[in-house]
Amino acid sequence: MTTGISLIRENAESMQPPRSLWVPFPLGRPLGKPNDKAFQHRVIAAALALLERTTGPVLEDYPEDAPTVSIEESSACPVSFGNTQAKATTWAARLISELTQMQPWYDFGKRRRNGRSLVGVTGEPMQTMLKKLGELLDSDTLPTAELKWFKLAIEDAKVFYIEALTAQPGEYSAQAIEQILWHETHLGAGLRIFYERFTATPKLAIMARMVASREAIGGFTGEEIEINDITKKEK
Amino acid sequence: MVRLTDLPEYERDHLLEKNMPPLGPMPWSNNAKPLSAKRIALITTAGLHFRGDNAFDFADPTFRPISIDDDANDLIMSHSSANFDRSGFVEDVNLVFPIKRFKELLADKTIDSLADVHYSFMGAGLMPKVYEKSAIQVAGLLKQDLVDAVFLTPV
Q1: N or C terminus of chain A: which is more exposed, having fewer CB within 10 Å?
Q2: Taking the mean position of all CA atoms in its chain, how far away is CA B23?
Q3: Interface of A with B in 144-163 (CB under 8 A)
Q4: A44 — contact with chain B (CB < 8 Å)?
């Protein structure tokens, strides 16, 4: 038997899993609030209570909102963008310059989190990845022969930036971090260019949706796909 | 919060497109054991795995095991969706994969035991039917592990 969290009530309503607790939390936060043991236990208890139900499907609404931080209340980002690196004439140079600004804060954040970091899906140094992404932008090309590497490299790069931007202790607005990442950094600007290039390349258009978020683009980024589509496109 | 009325129209429309009919007859089951006698497993669709594991591909219906003896703080994420917050998970693995919370429930005897192995899928880009083979495989593994109930978390 199963019980679980649903983040989109309408989806659970349509698919009717046997036992589901809808929570009014942001996507990516099924337990509501990081580092709040009591809050997380209340959510878990509500979901586990559904195991006692003897008829279903059960879709219960969790009554408590997760405490959120508004953009205005968000802790300050430690990095100031758009200064020295703006003078660099190539994407590779701009990204490497930005990395120089970010690295101390990434290291600081990692120490604050007791060594925990999500960076490392590629196993490559951040400098190597950013340089390569910059060179692709400079040469106006897409990594058609290395799509798997590209997916992991942008995941690593984005999470490196998020960890640096939230390095200091404090309460952060996820929306504020997204806005800085996508609209104030060279990485965000470069990824939006990759998004446009993928979108404009029919054989690779389905990859665009993983490059940039709907919030970054301000609209729809692509359909769900069947498993065979992607392998066909990669050939 | 994710109330559709609070979201921009493009986001609302996209999420509503994910509404689908039930996959088949509802797999309903009852288990007369009280929670304090149940063995629980966690399954997430957050695309979690350890650094040494194969990362999830762009569209990938496979799964990764997470042993109860592994340190969950070493979990990383290779999810293909760019459309959910990662900053919370950066701060606390339990926000997405609440294994520490369940170990606390075990310590205070709210539950009987935790599975030896828990599982991570990557829930993006694919239609639900594509996951059938993996889901059947995991169901068999959970049965073998004598699991009574599974706690599911999306992102």
Answers
A1: C
A2: 18
A3: 147-148, 151-152, 155, 158-159, 162-163
A4: yes
